[in-house]
């Protein structure tokens, strides 16, 4: 296997996005750039320079339709990508990942056998939210509790920043093994779908994301507009200014250098 540079990792992720975009258009599925990917598109017209992941969101109905399609692959005879989800693969995440099976990724925090072993892009559902702010906070916090349990359950028990964590973590991680991964993912998915996307005035990424500040008027997402990202143009929420402001504040201002958290994969290409 050959170790990949950051630029090569970004190129592979971009190729996955291009294929996913073509697939969604052919199958009449709605999706939009989200999170740091959307921020990168608007502020940098591509990847955030110190980042290397791609996030997209889909209204719940489109997200569920993606999972119901007969084959868990997208692409063509020359290049295929796999749709990984806890319902149809060995994924330990509660959301969809589109992966390149010709790559390999190493990690320290997650147990290697429980991490996604390939370069991926993340696909998150947009779900309905209650109109009441207190109920919205409770909804997101409820999912967040299961998210913390899931993350700790699948963590590397021997990794820790302090001696106390390294001593206690194996015991805690061991106890959490009584909770099956599919139970935790199913529970998070079920809670996220408490409110219908179709009938809700407010929607957001309940399943995984930035918490209750993701909750906003559905009008932000009901239409899409194309924005530049690297060499292509991809759909973004028509109200992306509202979305980015809620998540990042003054999103066009670069953060100080000490807050530019590098998110670089230790990735390799399988060579024949």
Structural features, described:
The chain is 35% helix and 21% strand. The chain has 272 residues and is an alpha+beta fold. The chain has one domain. The strands form three sheets. Strands 2, 3, 4, 5, 6, 8, 9 and 10 form an eight-stranded mixed β-sheet that branches. β4 and β5 form a beta hairpin. α4 packs antiparallel against α6. The chain is globular, with a radius of gyration of 19 Å. The model has no long low-confidence stretch (mean pLDDT 90).
Short summary:
The protein is built from seven helices and 13 strands.
Number of domains: 1
Strand percentage: 15-25%
The topology string of helices and strands comes to: EHEHEHEEEEEHHHEEEEHE
Mean pLDDT across residues: 90
Helix/strand layout:
Elements: E1 2-3, H1 6-26, E2 32-33, H2 35-44, E3 55-59, H3 60-68, E4 73-75, E5 80-84, E6 96-100, E7 103-106, E8 119-129, H4 133-153, H5 163-176, H6 181-192, E9 202-204, E10 216-217, E11 224-229, E12 232-237, H7 240-248, E13 266-269
Parallel strand pairs: 3-8
Antiparallel strand pairs: 1-13, 2-3, 4-5, 5-6, 6-8, 7-13, 8-9, 9-10, 11-12
Key phrases:
single chain; alpha+beta; three-stranded antiparallel sheet; 7 helices
